[in-house]
Prior knowledge:
The structure holds two protein chains of two kinds.
Chain A: H1 2-14, H2 25-35, E1 38-49, E2 54-60, E3 66-76, E4 81-87, E5 106-107, H3 108-112, E6 128-132, E7 135-142, E8 148-159
Antiparallel strand pairs in A: 1-8, 2-7, 3-6, 3-8, 4-5, 4-7
Chain B: H1 3-17, E1 21-31, E2 36-42, E3 49-58, E4 62-68, E5 71-77, E6 81-86, E7 91-92, E8 98-99, H2 100-103, E9 117-123, E10 128-134, E11 152-156, E12 160-170
Antiparallel strand pairs in B: 1-12, 2-10, 3-9, 3-12, 4-5, 4-11, 6-7, 6-8, 6-10
Amino acid sequence: MLKSFAETIYKQIVDCKPNRTIFSEEQRDKILFQAKRVRQKDYLLSFDLNDVQLHSDTVTTTANWYFVLTGAAVLSSEKGVKVGIKFQNFYPTSPFGTSAVDMNNVPYDLVFGREGLTRFEEYKNLYYSLGERVTVNVDVQNTKSDPTRIQVLLTGLEINLQDEGVE
Amino acid sequence: MNMAEITKKLGDLKETQAYEKTFDFTRSFVAKAGEANSFAIPITNEGPFLQESYNIIATKNSVLTRTYHGVTTTTNICATKLKFKSQADNSAQSNDYIPVQLISTPGFDDMPRYGARPFFHLYPKGDVLIIEYDNRAPESLIKPSTTYPTDGDVYTMEDELIQICFNGKIYPLNK
């Protein structure tokens, strides 16, 4: 339901084409009404990896707003770093095709594309309908012995359904 | 296209822009080396501004001296971090300062960006956008190890020109 709702209002608001039909005052007001309930937000997590152990950190999204993860980006100096993302308290799962329970971290070169000493391309193959006040867990692992620092940016839509009366 | 069609299109355009029109909201500023600061920018009073995406380009005046496995290299970079906030809801659009490298031109080094970064936010009429920046030296991405004790990043920070274009639509409310 939430995914459908997000797609419906998000597309209507954002996916306007040059040849769209002319808006009326009522349509404009409806767009603005809906736009107040959708916003984007970034969450940044930073890790210092001084060993080859798995490191985890979490971020909790805003209260009263549903969170839909739509992209992630990684900034690291180390090609051997693996990254995993999973959601703790709402449909526990991982965007990377492994279960939250036995998820193996994915080499970030595989999902974030081009290798390099710094990596900043967004990985956009994400669309997860999540719950209100979601806790997102990020696992990172350095497969090499070189200590490094990695920053993971999670970006997504926050949707407020309060007073909306959506079934 | 004959005159009647042109007239109709102009009429349509006028009618359309009474309720919605595209708008590029552009600002440039200099992030002073070693400083963290913020400034406020009033957004148009014509109506609510629905931001859909933004482009950021930045100079790369700062220098990263990186020693990795004992080999030292230098690179020109922009190490500025940004945070955006709407004064109306007093809520930051990120939980922390975001490195420009993560949210700006995602092309290869020294190449123009392809496409804006989608970022959706509604600013009500009369709202003020607050841009916070931090141009202090970030922490090293490289850490020294037992094998390579001199490894690490040293940043020589310089002033950076940050140019941002927020792409979106204005919804005039005077009709």
